[in-house]
Design a protein that fits this description.
heterodimer, A: alpha/beta, D-Maltodextrin-Binding Protein, domain 2, 4-stranded mixed β-sheet, 11% strand
Chain lengths: 424, 294
């Protein structure tokens, strides 16, 4: 009997220890919550590996120089391309235990937080930090909600880029220049198919198809009408949208059947391996091409999606100041670094994106990014739904689902009706 | 006073479990049910109660119906597959095989692997590419000249979910086998002998003597596998990720939660609970009745 109780005692002690251990792990990142005045700044991201982690490290290095009084605490949550992190973030915001700052796509994706009153406005700080002059006016306008700015963009990516294999194009007798319109692109796809490439257009899972759909909408509707889709001034039910969706459906006929089981790097691989000619993907692809040791112009070419030349479909990672942040002074110092010339340079040269600032020195960047910088300065701006600059997350998810269904059904009317419902 | 002495200590011992289960299961179910009746479609707190509106919307939602259909296909294939292989293996082992222990362990081992781990491997095995680019099982078929067996597996738009059940069948058939093996072994030898003495053929013996006695085991297996299938989330996330093609209610619920649509997520959770309860509760009631009769 005595032995049993001793065992029971041990077991209970063990359980308690385990519980404490869990607790320690679980709240490691939230240590800053209690560290008011101690100068800790908890930065919540899902950048845990690769170029993203290197970029974050670059930001941290600048932060440690500029804000020596404060200590950086990494609150990163890995996995699920940010899905896990967003879940953790949602529960922390709900229990009024926000990190000092968190990563989010600038633009529409922030609306949920703004409407729930979870973010502080930053317009005054923008003046103070001189950001109003150094970030392009068009971008500032795009991230302003009811006269207030809520985030500091750390970088800019471009979504409407087609990556093509020049060898495949030349073998089919095509030019490596961009087709002028979606119709011309369809004609080229037909030529490629006749030359023996069954699925010349590589696509991957739902959200990559959403990107393709957006590029077609952008090309067919024009920039203003496309941007109007997200604020209600363009009607999703219109005949123009129907026509664009039909073109999108025709494009998909030239795409690979195994798309549901591929992620975007797999689709890029199809292009670089010569199985397919084109893949539409954001400009983080340039980083992958570099990592794979491929040479621009020789192994791959890029151009704006057909019909969208002169339009820059942007998305931006940004940082915010949550309401009730434990160390707002520290957060402000972090945000100032994020917006600064040095911070953006450290971050973007490593992550493989371009700064949101207009005073960038192109010499610091590789060939793709130099061309992106040039376009960023000279193009019209369009939103990206798939990457959060256009609309809240619910809209994105509903669209991805509709596009995923269209991928097998091919029913244009149904797609349009669901897209209209998603805009709700 | 004396009465308390008899039941008091027992109650004291189970009280912590009762309290913890009460809070973490039943109170939370109630909270979820409550949430599902509100209009909380964003991160902001709910404003009003909307009655059953969220449920009505779900039944009107193509996406939800599609996820239920996916779930139904997967459950039918999963249950039928595990029962088929489970019974077959148990039957063969029960017949007396050399190295029974080896086979028993081999069939049981997959159960020790988590759905996520096996899902990652099966994602590769069930690669949908065919012909020259084939990988996984399709490549294997290509190698042995069975090209006609190559198929898109889970990315087939109509019947893909049947392929999604394959990894689950692989994992849990051994478990069903163990259940049935115990069932076979639990049948007294005298019954078989009596049957044989009365001139029953081997087939008749199984049909009329042994299988009827296995029906409680079959029901148990059905309930356990069935409710596992209803809750399926991890395997699907590991094999295909969250996408329309393979969406089941549990995945849809998670997606809704990620998009801050708390009321919808809660409504899906309650629907799932009801679906599982429809399966499990009659079984529990029947079990309790059987116990009482004993």
């Amino acid at each position: 009997m005595r032995r049993t109780s001793a065992f029971a005692g041990l077991a209970i002690a063990g359980l308690l220890l385990a519980a404490c251990g869990d607790d320690g792990d679980g709240t490691e990142g939230t240590g800053a919550g209690t560290g008011e005045g101690s100068g800790e700044v908890e930065v919540f991201t899902w950048w845990t590996e690769g170029g993203e982690k290197a970029g974050l490290d670059g930001l941290v290095a600048t932060f440690e120089e500029e804000c020596a009084d404060f200590e950086f605490v990494n609150g990163a949550v890995a996995g699920g391309a940010g899905a896990n992190a967003k879940q953790v973030l949602a529960s922390r915001l709900q229990t009024n235990d926000p990190p000092d700052t968190f990563q989010a796509h600038a633009g529409g994706e922030l609306l949920d937080y703004i409407n729930a009153g979870q973010l502080e406005g930053l317009s005054e700080r923008y003046e103070q930090w001189g950001l109003t002059d150094s970030i392009s006016a068009e971008l500032l306008e795009a991230i302003t909600v009811d006269g207030e700015i809520y985030s500091v963009p750390a970088n800019v990516h471009r979504a409407n880029v087609v990556w093509a294999n020049p060898t495949v194009l030349e073998e089919a007798g095509l030019s490596t220049e961009a087709p002028a319109s979606v119709d011309d692109w369809l004609a080229d796809l037909e030529t490629l198919r006749e030359s023996g490439i069954q699925a010349p257009l590589a696509v991957a899972v739902d959200w990559t198809q959403t990107m393709l759909l957006e590029a077609v909408l952008l090309a067919e509707l024009g920039t203003d009408a496309f941007n109007g889709l997200w604020d209600g001034s363009t009607d999703w039910g219109s005949a123009e949208v129907t026509a664009a969706l039909e073109k999108y459906g025709q494009l998909l006929e030239y795409a690979n059947d195994d798309r549901a089981s591929l992620d975007w790097p797999d689709a890029v691989n199809k292009v670089t391996a010569g199985e397919a000619a084109y893949h539409l993907m954001g400009d983080w692809t340039a980083g992958k091409m570099d990592a794979d040791g491929l040479t621009p112009d020789e192994d791959y070419v890029w151009w704006p999606a057909p019909g969208t030349d002169g339009v820059f479909q942007w998305l931006a990672d940004s940082f915010v100041l949550p309401v009730g942040a434990p160390n707002p002074a520290g957060t402000e110092c972090w945000l100032e670094v994020v917006g600064s010339y040095d911070g953006q340079k450290e971050f973007n040269t490593k992550k493989g994106s371009i700064p949101a600032r207009t005073d960038t020195d192109p010499a610091d960047y590789g060939p793709y990014l130099q061309s992106a910088l040039e376009d960023w300065g000279s193009s019209e701006l369009a939103f990206s739904l798939a990457h959060g600059s256009a609309a809240p997350i619910g809209w994105i998810d509903a669209t991805n689902s509709a596009v995923g269904q269209f991928s097998s059904s091919g029913d244009v009317a149904q797609l349009q009706q669901q897209l209209e419902a998603a805009a709700g | 006073m004396r009465k308390i002495k008899s039941w008091g200590p027992g109650l004291l011992l189970v009280a912590p479990s009762i309290v913890i289960i009460g809070i973490f299961v039943y109170v939370l179910i109630a909270a979820t049910a409550n949430e599902s009746l509100t209009d909380r479609h964003s991160a902001a707190p709910a404003e009003n109660y909307v009655g059953l509106e969220n449920y009505v919307n779900l039944l009107d939602d193509d996406r939800f119906i599609h996820s239920l259909r996916n779930l139904a296909i997967m459950t039918v294939v999963f249950v039928a597959g595990t029962l088929f292989f489970g019974v077959l293996w148990a039957f063969l082992l029960e017949k007396g095989v050399k190295g029974e222990g080896f086979f028993r362990s081999t069939f049981l081992f997959p159960m020790a692997v988590s759905f996520v781990a096996s899902g990652v491997v099966w994602r590769w095995l069930l690669n949908s590419a065919q012909g020259e680019n084939a990988g996984g099982l399709n490549a294997l078929f290509g190698m042995v000249g069975l090209d006609f067996l190559q198929n898109p597996w889970w990315s087939h738009p109509d019947w893909g979910m049947a392929a999604m059940a394959i990894p689950a069948i692989w994992q849990l058939s051994g478990y069903v086998m163990a259940l049935f093996l115990a069932g076979f072994r639990g049948i007294p030898h005298e019954l078989r002998e009596a049957g044989r003495v009365d001139g029953a053929s081997e087939a008749q013996l199984y049909r009329h003597v042994i299988f009827p006695q296995l029906s409680p085991v079959a029901l148990t297996a059905l309930i356990i596998i069935g409710h596992m299938s209803m809750k399926m989330f991890d395997l699907i996330m590991a094999v295909s990720g969250a996408q329309f093609l393979t969406e089941v209610p549990a995945v849809y619920m998670w997606q809704s939660l990620l998009t801050n649509d708390y009321a919808k997520a809660a409504a899906i959770a309650i629907v799932l609970l009801v679906v599982v309860a429809v399966l499990v509760v009659p079984y529990l009631v029947q079990n309790a009745r059987a116990e009482r009769q004993r």
